[in-house]
Every structure is written in structure tokens, then in C-alpha cells.
Amino acid sequence: DWTDKGAAVIYKIEKNPSSDEQATKIIKKGVKDFNFGRTLGEGSYSTVVAATDRQTLKEYAIKILDKRHIIKEKKVKYVNIEKNTLNRLGDHPGVVSLYYTFQDERSLFYVLDLAANGELLGVLKRLGSFDEECTRYYGGQILDALDYMHTKGIIHRDLKPENILLDEHMRIKLTDFGTAKILDQNEGESQDQARANSFVGTAEYVSPELLTDKAAYKSSDLWAFGCIIYQLLSGRPPFKASNEYQTFQKIVHLDYSFPLGFPAHARDLVSKLLVLDPKDRLTIEDIKKHEFFAGVEWGRAIWKANPPKLR
Ligand code: ADE
User: Fold this and answer.
1) I want to staple 203 with a disulfide (CB 3.0 to 4.6 A). Which of 83, 147, 244, 290 is the partner?
2) Among the atoms of ligand 1, which is closest to the Cα of residue 41?
3) 158 among known catalytic residues
4) Ligand 1 centroid distance, CA of 90 (Å)
């Protein structure tokens, strides 16, 4: 259902300044409250548009979803997953925040943080590849955001450079939680190998367990993280073929190799993440202690550091 709780803004209006009496009026944001601008991105079920709050002049990215299309394609479940995960994730610098949701006859509207510098993929394509310092900086932020998500019991399941956005300070924000999995209480807290079922993400970043057992774990996001570290340093993902089937074959056979000159510490890290058995991959804690991330001050500090010159 598309009922809308928790998206209302409550204004307290003092009726009479000399008394304590207050009237509370609940005003819900709607389409009329925003000026819509340029298109930021287009997906199969949605369009993301830049918009400005007419009152505060604050800029947002609004994801507009076509209700008829979503119902016809049976994607209602995913639309609700996206809203529920974003609500559960609340406020973290590495995850896009959801501020309001509303709808009109045709569309659903999700009002999100605007990430002024677009997708990490765009920056990577412009540069070809990143040096070790840049990879450590962006990789460290991606890992910290993943750590937060996993702590909240959420598996992303479609982590890739298109879903990693960059804000005005060139800091990352994860987006696109439409295919995330919310683990239930005991799964989220104790069971690191808690299983989430079905759904296949983007071919190049899909974990082998998803292809062979239709299972996704928190460590499936770490497989994707390994693919991303490899891609930032070399310019291309480790498993890539001319079609999805061939890509899947490469993944389940762990058929990849490092290009010449791939940095040694990064090579060690990636080879301990791209491991077929999800139980044998490094954990987030292991990764934080790995030589590749030596010198990184984990915690809130990584969200204050200035980005290195892109190289
Ligand atoms: N493209 C998709 N989502 C976006 C966002 N929140 N900010 C900027 N560009 C986007």
C-alpha cells in the first residue's frame, strides 16, 4: 500500500504570544511545494529530477515513479522496499536521506538528497581509473556506509558504481535501495550469514551464491565491494563478458585476473573478497585492518577529510 506515514511536517503556530496556547497544524509537502528542474537520471520505472523547495530554496533530487507502469510490471513490492529501507537508514553521511514522500494521480514522489556530482561511474569513466590514494578514499567511505547499512540489518544487493553518488564535497552517498533486503530482527543482529532470497542485481557485480543458491548475505555486498575496488584501480570490473550468461559463467568459475601493475596490497585485498564461499570472505572489520587501508582513521573522521586530487 502507498499510504504515507511520517512524511508530514508539523508546524507549531503560536496563536497568542502572551499565552502558551499553540495550534499545531500538520502540513504535508506535495508537488506544488517544489520547482522541478533538470533530469538527473532515468531508470526503467523512475526518473530522478532536480527540484527546489519553494519555501526554503533547499535543493533536492526527486525520484518520480510511474504508478501504472509499476503495477503493470508487478514492482509494487520493490517500490515499498525502497521507501522502508530509506526510512530505516535515517541519517548517515554515506546514504541518501529520504525527506518526504507524496503522490499524485499518476506518480509517486520520493524527495531525496541531491548528490551534486552525480555517479561515481561518471567520474571513473572520465578519468579511466583511479590511483591508490583515490581508491582508498572512495573505497573507505563505501565500506563505512556498508558497515552502517549492515548494522541496521540491510543488504543492498545491487552495489555498483552507478549506485554510488557524489555530493558537492565529493563524498559518496549510496542510493537505489529498491532491491535491498531488510533482515528481520535476529537475522540483523546475530546472524551474519542471514540469508535473503532470489533477485538478481547487475550481472558484473552479482555474487556467485546468488547465481548458484539464489541466496544473498551481507557478505554478498562485500563481493560487490571487491569488484568495485578492482574496477576503480583498473577501469573495468573483474568479470565482464559480451553477454550476461558469459559473465555469470566467469563469476561462478572465479575466472578473472589482475592487469599488470595492479598494486600489491589492493591485489591481496581483492583476492580475499572475490572468494566463492561467502563465509570465507574478509569481514568489514578485517577489511578495515587490511594493509590497503593502512593509515585510514575509521569512524566519522573519514566524512570530514578532503578528497584527494583525482588521478
Ligand atoms: N541520480 C539519481 N539519484 C540522484 C541523486 N539523489 N542526486 C543526484 N543525481 C542522482
Assistant:
1) 244
2) 1
3) yes
4) 17
Counting ligand 1 atoms within 8 A of each CB, the residue from 64, 112, 123 with the most, and so the one to mutate, is 112
- Is 63 annotated to bind ligand? yes
175 lines ligand 1 (CB under 6 A): yes
Residue 96 in contact with ligand 1 by CB distance below 6 A: yes
pLDDT tens per residue, the chain (311 residues)?
554 444 455 555 545 555 555 566 677 899 999 999 999 999 888 999 999 999 999 999 999 999 999 999 999 999 999 999 999 998 899 999 999 999 999 999 999 999 999 999 999 999 999 999 999 999 999 999 999 999 999 999 999 999 999 999 999 999 999 999 999 876 644 445 556 655 667 899 999 999 999 999 999 999 999 999 999 999 999 999 999 999 999 999 999 999 999 999 999 999 999 999 999 999 999 999 999 999 999 999 999 999 998 87
> pTM of this prediction?
0.90
How is 36-86 classified by DSSP, letter by letter? Answer: EEEEEEE-SSEEEEEEEETTT--EEEEEEEEHHHHHHTT-HHHHHHHHHHH
CA distance 278 to 240: 21
Closest residue by CA, ligand 1 atom 3:
48
The catalytically annotated residue of 33, 113, 147, 158 is 158
Ligand 1 centre distance from Cα of residue 130 (Å): 22
**Which long-range contacts (C-beta less than 8 Å, at least 24 apart) are formed by 287-293?**
287/143, 287/222, 287/225, 288/143, 290/265, 291/265, 292/132, 292/136, 292/139, 292/229, 292/263, 292/265, 292/266, 292/268, 293/136, 293/139, 293/140, 293/143
ipTM for the whole complex: 0.96
